[in-house]
Amino acid sequence: MSHRVIASTIFCTLSVLLPACGGSQPSAEPPPSPTAEAPTNALPADSSTPASEAVSPAPPAKKIEATLQPKSKSKVTGTATLTETTNGVNVVLVIENLTPGDHGAHVHEKGDCSAEDASSAGGHFNPASHPHALPSGTPRHLGDLGNITADKDGKAKLEFIAVGANLKDSDPNSFVGRSIVIHEKKDDGGQPSGNAGGRVACAEIK
Predict the structure, then answer these.
(1) Predicted pLDDT of residue 20
(2) Residue 14 placed within a domain
(3) What is the CATH number of the domain that holds 171?
(4) Quick one: how far is CA 201 from the chain centroid?
């Protein structure tokens, strides 16, 4: 076999492997993978606090307003405002027609001002059976509010926090269902109830 025939045979063989004898062609690149797209029904992130975890506002402080009734033929009038606090009950008394000077003020054990002399209110509210004392002394009756001082016109105001008291229903230390009594004289801190004399005004705490 001549060299020309051998060359022709090799050429034809290559022409089968390399189409049109044009040399190698670059292999086609694989098509790019499709880009992942967010589902059309995706919801935006919600940064708000779930309702189940929302902080509820603190309930308003319980408040009771009571009207002082004149007793023992006095002309004393006024109001008592009691507000429950974190450590007790804030008592605010605003009174008129008192005689000038100091007058004992106490929470009494019964919420009954029906008697003409307010004797129906019972004794001082004293759930722990402590001795009587002024606010500067301890222990003392839970109902001991000290003295309220009237000016020359008979007007007086007292604000006092009864530590340990509350306005809860059926609680042993609650002022609810009791009464506030204003006395004709100064509470001197003596036993058993301050020597404050008669009862000139009474307010039922309801």
Answers:
(1) 42
(2) no
(3) 2.60.40.200
(4) 33
For 174-204, letters b (16+ CB in 10 Å) and e give: bbbebbbbbbbbbbebeeebbebeebbbbbb
**What token pair was written down for 143?**
């109902």
> What is the count of structural domains for the chain?
1
Q: pTM for the whole thing?
A: 0.72
Q: How far is CA 129 from CA 132, 140, 141, 142, 171, in A?
A: 9, 9, 7, 9, 16
Establish if 54 belongs to a structural domain. Answer: no
Q: Given a cut of 60, is residue 1 above it in pLDDT?
A: no
**Percent of the chain whose predicted confidence (pLDDT) is above 90:** 68
Please give the structure tokens belonging to residue 97.
């027609």
Which residue range(s) make up the domain with 140?
63-204
The per-residue pLDDT for range 92-108, each reduced to its tens digit, is 999 999 999 999 999 99
